[in-house]
Design brief:
Radius of gyration: 14 Å
Structural class: alpha+beta
Distance between the termini: 12 Å
Strand content: 35-45%
Order of helices and strands: HHEEHEEEE
Shape: globular
Largest sheet: 6 strands, antiparallel
Helix content: 10-25%
């Protein structure tokens, strides 16, 4: 069998192709990292908002699926607080605020290597009845 960390790092092709990697998962919590490269930059030469969202999204997915039940995101909000630049190492930490049996609520905070808050993403999920095809978290 495969762990949730391995499963999401391997099966979320979009996140992995954008340099996002889950580094830690506990029940209701996950951490993911991404190095900002030239490919992440927008016309203003700072990190594009979709890159932040992708990093937060994979961390949120790991946190809400950490209970072993397939859960999909159904709503997200993002607040941009500071720009990241090429070379920055971003960390998204997602914490499940409400572990509802059907509609969990999660907050992900993205910081840079200097612990400066870059953005906050909140998410609501929907838990299906399907079990995740994994054996453990890490």
């Amino acid at each position: 069998m495969i762990t949730l960390k391995e499963y999401l790092n391997d099966k979320d092709h979009f996140a992995s192709s954008n340099g996002c990697k889950i580094t830690e998962i506990k029940e209701g919590y996950a951490k993911a990292i991404m190095k900002v490269t030239n490919e992440h930059l927008n016309g203003g030469n700072v990190c594009q908002g979709g890159a932040y969202f992708t990093l937060a999204d994979i961390a949120i997915a790991a946190a809400i699926n950490s209970h072993g039940t397939l859960t999909f995101g159904i709503q997200n909000n993002i607040s941009f607080l500071k720009s990241a630049i090429e070379g920055d190492i971003l960390t998204a930490e997602a914490n499940e605020i409400i572990d509802h049996h059907r509609i969990p609520y999660v907050e992900a905070r993205i910081t840079n290597q200097n612990s400066e808050l870059i953005c906050i993403v909140t998410g609501i999920g929907y838990r299906k009845s399907n079990k995740m095809p994994v054996d453990g978290l890490m």
